[in-house]
Amino acid sequence: MTASSESASSPLRGKIALVTGASGGIGLITARELARRGARVVMVCRNPERGEQARTAIREAVGSDAQLDLLLCDLSLLANVRTLAGEVTRRFNQLDILVNNAGIFPGPLTITEEGHELSWATNHLAVFALTNLLLPQLLAAPQARIVTVSSEAHWLGEIEQSTEARNAPEKYSSFTAYCDSKLANIMFTSELAHRLDLTKVTANCLHPGMVDTGLVNTGSSPLMKAMWWTARPFMISPEKGARTSIYLASSPEVESVSGKYFKNRKPTRASGRSQSRPEAARLWRLSQEETGVE
Ligand SMILES: NC(=O)c1ccc[n+]([C@@H]2O[C@H](COP(=O)([O-])OP(=O)(O)OC[C@H]3O[C@@H](n4cnc5c(N)ncnc54)[C@H](OP(=O)(O)O)[C@@H]3O)[C@@H](O)[C@H]2O)c1
């Protein structure tokens, strides 16, 4: 293979990409396709067996020369997120691509041992903390991209302004909690893109489509499981669901695009609330207080 044909088939050669939730669903396909394009992929998974199975599956699909690091982390706890960020910082001088993909659709109200509602902790606080803790590595890359997997569910979201309100059993609904966390993903991305203006780091987010994955699982409410099973025939495969994540993480077309919400590899309209600068700035301050990350 000549040097030019190798760079055409491996456009991400020399780049380091971290994908959270790489053990299954959209994250596994995203990690696989970034590895196929030549990136060294840091797979962040919480379950060692599922993580190893995913790594083996990617090797089998891409080839034995795929460069895959597996880091274990339950992202629902900020202490773990800090340990993960420390490990990544120790191992890598720079990070070219960060895909905040891991997420849950919560079941009954669960408060983590650090005092946060589980989906808020996993879907938003971990994203906020990990991204900010890895910013020095991202800023050290010649050009870096942050991609966060949100959802059209954000249209129904609202941001509670206190932990107490979010954790109140009488107000809790798993559906609302999920929507709120996905709204936070978009508000976080637009504030982050604003703060990274004039740097070579971009931040975008996306809706992957309705994707047939394990997002709604045995822990979900019977109503949610019934709705999910009814919708399954109309859902797209994880391969298709990962396309926009892969596009934002790797396509030259979006190298300098930042602060946008994508669907089907195109920028699309997000809710008015998600685009409010004052609300995004307020969420940023709230997230700083709740994570202790500046
Ligand atoms: N599926 C859809 O229709 C849809 C629609 C809109 C948005 N999304 C978003 O797409 C993203 C990926 O979801 P998916 O549909 O691919 O679901 P999935 O198959 O359930 O994958 C979720 C991934 O996140 C990981 N994860 C969950 N909690 C974690 C934790 N505490 N620490 C570390 N990893 C954790 C899971 O690990 P385990 O393997 O250990 O469970 C899994 O790898 C999520 O952010 C979701 O909100 C999905």
TrEMBL record:
Keywords carried by this UniProt record: Oxidoreductase
Signal peptide: none
Organism: Hymenobacter roseosalivarius DSM 11622
Name this protein carries in UniProt: Short-chain dehydrogenase/reductase SDR
Family matches, as InterPro entries: NAD(P)-bd_dom_sf (IPR036291), SDR_fam (IPR002347)
Single GO MF descriptor: oxidoreductase activity
Lineage, highest ranks first: Bacteria, Pseudomonadati, Bacteroidota, Cytophagia, Cytophagales
Classification via Pfam families: adh_short
Sequence similarity: Belongs to the short-chain dehydrogenases/reductases (SDR) family.
Superkingdom, natural source: Bacteria
SUPFAM superfamilies given in the database record: NAD(P)-binding Rossmann-fold domains
Record region (Disordered): 259-294
